[in-house]
Amino acid sequence: MPPLLQAEDLTVHYGGAPVVAGVSLQVEPGRCVALAGANGSGKSTVLRVLAGRQEADTGTVLLDGEPVRESDPRFRRDVAVSMDGGECFPDLTVAEHVRMVAAAHGLGRRAAEAAADVLDHLGLAAHHDAFPGTLSAGQRQALLLSAALVRPARLLMLDEPEQRLDARAKERLAAVLDAAKRAGTGIVLVSHERSLVEAVADHVVLLASGRCVAEGEPARVLAEEAAPWR
Ligand SMILES: Nc1ncnc2c1ncn2[C@@H]1O[C@H](COP(=O)(O)OP(=O)(O)OP(=O)(O)O)[C@@H](O)[C@H]1O
């Protein structure tokens, strides 16, 4: 069986020196791979390539052994992505927005319950009927995450999901991601939050200037010189 996600030897240039150079990783069901590294080390670029949103100059990305295309219905069914720039419908309530995403991904009659569940888990229990324009930045981030997490997915790709979340919301997020893993979902996590990486990641890929400088078990890799939290 091929891995759920396999990326080999990814390289990306924006003109001059590569911003991603020779990065490889693989994700198995129920496992979380975290991409760590300082600002500008290439984490988001790798994630965009993995998500099919950006072409690499060299290298391959395979989902179940087949090339990834974001427009491919199989990719949209199996992969939930949360990156910067997510939008909410301004005239739908928080619950309506998440319910609609759940329904669009085939949850049918279970959409309302699933939406309520994920919103409660991410700390939005008191905001089901609010409109996105009235939410704080952290609550809005929790809403965007809820929309990514409500739908069934075999693979989650999350770029700094902890952004703007307070300490309790970060703990709730770690619990939700842990539950997703236990249900068999693979996760690629880009994060600047050491506690989140330690709580959820099984394997860390540490980038510096676009290159993998260390990888493996989180405690060991996070002690490396290039680790942002060292
Ligand atoms: N569209 C672009 N055009 C030119 N250079 C870019 C572009 N996008 C990213 N870069 C450069 O690529 C490098 C890697 O950026 P990337 O956003 O992948 O880093 P990152 O590790 O996710 O950083 P951060 O932790 O700050 O989010 C940076 O030097 C950045 O300036």
TrEMBL record:
InterPro entries: AAA+_ATPase, ABC_transporter-like_ATP-bd, ABC_transporter-like_CS, P-loop_NTPase. Residues 5-230 form the ABC transporter domain. SUPFAM superfamilies: P-loop containing nucleoside triphosphate hydrolases. SMART domains: AAA. It comes from the Bacteria. The keyword Cytoplasm does not apply. Keywords: ATP-binding, Nucleotide-binding, Transport. It holds the Pfam family ABC_tran. The keyword Cytoplasm does not apply. Belongs to the ABC transporter superfamily. This is ABC transporter domain-containing protein. The lineage of its organism: Bacteria, Bacillati, Actinomycetota, Actinomycetes, Kitasatosporales.
